[in-house]
Each structure stands twice: as structure tokens, then as C-alpha cells.
Amino acid sequence: MQEQHDITIAPRPQPASRPARQESNGGPRFHVYTESSLDKIPQIERLSAAERFNMQVVANVLPFRVNPYVLDQLIDWDNIPADPIFQLTFPQTGMLDPADFERMAELIKAKADRKLIKATADDIRLGLNPHPAGQQALNVPTLDGEPVSGMQHKYRETVLFFPTQGQTCHAYCTFCFRWAQFVGIQDLKFASTDAAQLHAYLAAHPQVSDILFTGGDPLVMKTRHLAAYLLPLLEDEYRHVQTIRIGSKALSYWPYRFTTDPDADALLELCERLVKGGKHVALMAHYNHWHELETSAAQDAIRRVRDTGVVIRGQGPLIAHINDDAEVWARLWRKEVQLGIVPYYMFVERDTGARRYFEVPLVKAWEIYRQALSQVSGLARTARGPSMSAGPGKVEVQGVTEIGGEKVFVLRFIQGRNSDWVQRPFFARFDPTATWLNHLKPAFGDEHFFFEEEYESMATGRIPTPVGASALSH
Ligand SMILES: *Cc1c(COP(=O)(O)O)cnc(C)c1O
Ligand code: SF4
After folding, report:
1. What is residue 178's predicted lDDT score, i.e. its pLDDT?
2. Which of 11, 181, 208, 352 is most exposed by smallest CB count within 10 Å?
3. 78 falls within a domain
4. Which pLDDT score is estimated for 346?
5. Which domain range does residue 74 map to?
6. Ligand 2, from 65, 172, 182, 251: best to mutate by most atoms within 8 Å of Cβ?
7. At which of 65, 97, 126 does a domain end?
């Protein structure tokens, strides 16, 4: 994996055969710190021994990866542990159940065997709903009767593609729902190196107007790999594929990918060729906090991307300890608009991993969305949400109201497994503690939501899909 992604784990030196290659354009060289090199992070010395130990405990269970840009430019080390980017990337004690935390802490204190630590970590991970999916069973498309790996086709017009070379990220978000894959307990069945299969599938499906490259982060990939997937789409047989979306956090976590990295210019040229060839190219940029938009490196990268004709759209989940505050969202959306980024989605965090630490009740998510939206101009009100990417579709919490004396959530599908569900309002009993769609019960004494029967019949004969399943945060 490491060679494939041209990522080195700090502080291991570069092999002599690849001397300072990454510094060719004068920019910083990419390297990462992980659980095993946590202690080598210079800023970590500011923390007490107890705090460092606690981080070590959690990092043995949940994925951890940061790079020098995140450490030096995004995190305000005078404001830890509250700093949102510190919370976004560094393991926190509250992310594990206290009993699990103690279990792991005891082993590390006793300097237990690595194998035992790993087995215990895996056991704890299994308790964290590592597969909030069912998505593999329901969404894997077929070509000539054979399942196509590395793809998901859930909504008629959009196909998701997970290139194998893009199944990691420049840093890891502590809340990421793909965490299980990063720690190796979920296989990469979902990833594909097969450009030919992708192209054959697209050629055979004229209803597909959008292809969405996702990961991990597909921009971890070298430009030449990306080009092999994307350039053929300029050919006439793919003219129905009008939009190419790339889901990425590289603008936040490693903006040099667009400026000084060795193949940064090649990436921008690729974007320009696609745009000139008639495609709408959208960079679906994952943002959680306006801090990510403040550095000159980030702003240079944004400018360069926009100069190619690529449209940047901002999206990200609402997360306790990071951005559960209307002021933060309002400022994020305003800053996005100022920099030419279109606010797109506010997501509800899903039911996996360290959700105990991150989750926000739906009612609070809606209040934050409403308060943020109400204080920005119309150009920033393009952000939809709060949206749950659940099994039946993307469900937006439109609000809380009272109908016939009953307090209810008003909901609607932004996307539906059946496109006929889209934009139909439906109602759930108000529940101040609910954090996900599967916690909600139909209002007015109804037994089922209008889509449930049809959704269940879609799932018949396949692996049962929980309502709280599927899809992406960028
Ligand atoms: C969000 C999402 C899409 C894209 O939906 P849009 O509303 O077009 O942005 C496509 N596929 C899946 C599985 C998704 O979750
Ligand atoms: S949320 Fe995106 S950038 Fe963050 S770790 Fe997950 S896949 Fe990577």
C-alpha cells in the first residue's frame, strides 16, 4: 500500500533510490505520523505523559494518521484539546467506552504482546459497528450478470467508484465511517483497479449522468492513475456522463497536492482537459471547520483548482466537539462563498466507530442548520441538510413542528433508492434523543413510513439492510 500511494510513514527515511523527489517544486514533502510514531510528533511534547498515554490507548483501536501540514498549520496548539482540528485528527479518551478504554490501557501498561493488543483491539472494534453497511449487498452493480467490484450504483443517475489506489487519505478524521477499512478489519472488496470494467459499465448505462470518485481519498492517487480512469470519459461513447465528481479532503489535509507536489501541475492539466472536453468537473471538498480555509496554502490550492474551470462544492458532517455550533457553520459557508466554493451538504454523522463521542441529536442538528442558514446570504443557502445517508436514501430533517396536536419531525428524501420518493414530505414522531433514521417512528400512529414496504422488498433475497446504512461523507 505504501509504495502504491507514495506515502512514507515518518520518521522512516526515504529509500536512497527516491531522493527528495517530492521537493522538486519547492514545496514540503509529504509524510505521515501514525500510531507507532505518535511519540515523534514534535508538538506532542506539550501534552502531559497521561494525555499522551491516553492517546496511545485510543490510537491502538481507531485509525490515526496526520501529516506536517495538519500539525503545523491547521492545529492551534495553544488551544488543545478543544481545538477543532485537533479533535478532528487526534484520538480522544471519550471515543472509547470506559471499559474498553481500561482494557486496552491495562495491556499497554503491562507492555503486553503485540498480538494480544491487536486481538483485543479487533474485539473492541467489533463492538463499534464496523460495517454500518449492507450497502455492499444492495448497491453492487452487475455487468453481464457478474458483480462489478469497486462500484456502487444506488441512485439512478450517479455511480460511485472506489479506485484501489485511493483507499487511504492524507490524514484521517477521527469520526470517519470508513475507519474499519483503515484499521484493516474491513476488506477492500469495495475497491477496484479495473478501469476497463468501469468504462464498460458506464458505456452500458446511458442513464448515468454522474460518476463520483471516492475513497478514502482518490486524490492520494498519482495523477497518471487518475488520468487512466478519467481521460477515456472524453470519448463519444461516454457523452452521457456529463459530470465527474471527485470526493476529497486534500484541499484541507494536503493542499500541496494542487500546488507544489511533483504531479500537482499534471493534476490541474488533467482537470482542464476534462473541463475543455465538455465535462462538468466537481471537486466535492470535505470541510468541517472554517479553520481549514484560512491558510495561504489552502487558498492557493483553491484558486488553482478554480482556474481550471473545476467547481468546488463543500460538504461535511456535523460533529460534536468539532462543529456542533451554528456560528462555525455560518462562518464556514460564508468563507466558502468568499473563496468561490459552493456550499452543498451538511451531513448527519453515522452510527459507527466513535459515534458515542461525536453524535448530535437530530433536533439539535436541525437547530444548528437553521440558525446557521438564517444568518448567511442566499448564496450560502445552497447547503442542504442535515442529511442522513441511510439505506433507503438521503433523508433530510426539514424541521420540527406540530400537526394536529402531535409534535413531529418533518422529513424528505433528497435522494431515494426509488427516485419517485424524492421530495415527498413524511413525518416521524418527535424524539429529542434520536440521532439517526432508524431511531424514528412514524407519526400519527402509522405503522410504517411510506417507503418501508417497497424498500424491504428491494432488499428481499439479499443480505438484510438496516435502515441506518450506506453512503458517503465526501
Ligand atoms: C450522496 C450520494 C450520491 C450523490 O447524490 P447527489 O444528491 O446527487 O449529490 C450518490 N450515491 C450515493 C450512494 C450517495 O450517498
Ligand atoms: S472522512 Fe474522508 S478524509 Fe476523513 S478519513 Fe474518512 S475518507 Fe478520509
Report:
1. 79
2. 11
3. yes
4. 98
5. 26-126
6. 172
7. 126
Residue of minimum CA distance from atom 5 in ligand 1: 415
For 133-143, write each residue's pLDDT tens digit: 555 556 778 88
Grid coordinates 465526501 are at which residue?
474
Distance, CA 155 to ligand 1 centroid (Å)?
Answer: 7
Domain membership of residue 119 (yes or no) is yes
Question: What is the Å distance from ligand 2's center to 230 Cα?
Answer: 22
Among candidate residues 59, 94, 126, the one where a domain is terminated: 126
The ligand 2 atom at the shortest distance from the C-alpha of residue 216 is 7
Dist. CA 100–CA 98, nearest whole Å: 5
Say which ligand is closest to the CA of 251.
2
β-strand 406-416 against 151-155: which pairing, if any? Answer: unpaired
Domain count, the chain: 2
Looking at residue 2, its pLDDT comes to 29
Mean per-residue pLDDT, 293-308: 98
- Please choose from 67, 178, 181, 389 the residue to mutate so as to test ligand 2's pocket, defined by most ligand atoms within 8 A of CB: 178
- Give 425 Cα–ligand 1 centroid separation in angstroms: 19
Helix, strand or coil, per DSSP, at residue 217: coil
Q: Which protein residues touch ligand 2 with a CB less than 6 Å away?
A: 169, 172-173, 176, 178, 215-217, 249, 286, 473-474
pLDDT in tens, 392-441: 999 999 999 999 999 999 999 999 999 999 999 999 999 999 999 999 99
- Considering every ligand atom, which ligand is closest to the CA of 474? 2
DSSP-assigned letter for residue 47: S
Closest to 225 measured CA to CA, from 305, 274, 166: 166
Closest residue by Cα to atom 6, ligand 2, is 176
Q: Kindly tell me if the per-residue pLDDT of 310 is higher than 70.
A: yes
φ and ψ at 425, to 5 degrees? -70, 145
Three-state SS letters, 140-158? CCEECCEECCCEEEEECCE
Alpha helices, DSSP H, located in 379-440: none
Separation of alpha carbons 235 and 240, rounded Å: 10
Any domain includes 94: yes
Does residue 12 lie within any of the structural domains? no
245-256 pLDDT, tens digit each = 999 999 999 999
Q: Is the dihedral of CA 358, 8, 313, 247 positive or negative?
A: negative
pLDDT-derived band at 188, boundaries 50, 70, 90: low
Per-residue b or e along 66-99, where b marks 16 or more CB atoms closer than 10 Å to that residue's CB = bbbbbbebbbeeeebeebbbbbbbbbbbbbbeee
Residue 297 has pLDDT above 80, yes or no: yes
Report the nearest atom of ligand 1 relative to the CA of 212.
10
Where does residue 405 rank: exposed (0-12), middle (13-18), buried (19+ CB within 10 A)? exposed
pLDDT tier, 471 (very low <50, low <70, confident <90, very high otherwise): very low
